[in-house]
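Workshop exercise sheet. Pairs work together: one partner reads the sequence aloud, the other fills in the structure field after running the prediction. Swap roles for the next sheet.
Pair: D.N. / O.F.
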Amino acid sequence: MSASEVHAGIDRLRKCRLLNEEERPRKTVLLEFLVHGLPYVFPPEHGTIARGIATSYAAPPLNAHIVHDEDSLVPVWPSPDGNRRGYTLSPLYRSVPEAATRDPELYQLLALTDAIRDGRVREHKLAIACLTEKLGVQ
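Structure field:
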């Protein structure tokens, strides 16, 4: 992302009151937005079968809780660097696959948001529980 895109994003976070006065995330409000708003703001878009990076329930940390056959098609972000074959799921932003491969913690958070955007009830509930724990929300 360019510096201007990051700056504009931070301005939007301020306007939406997802940041407090010290410019720190308001974790409870952020979790509420992710659970209730994200699927409407960034609806999941499914594509064709392709090689990519596993996301949603097929990625950490949910893949430790939800068993699926290694040969089954799972949601993936399309990427030539990916090691899974599955149905493509639109990432939140075009650079998500590359960023996720560089930062394992970011990868988990983005995969959890995809489980919220696109998951079935069980996946959705597990993703909310994991995000609640990761954000340290009571």
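Discussion prompt: Helices lie at 3-15, 27-36, 38-41, 96-102, 104-118, 121-135. What would you look at next?
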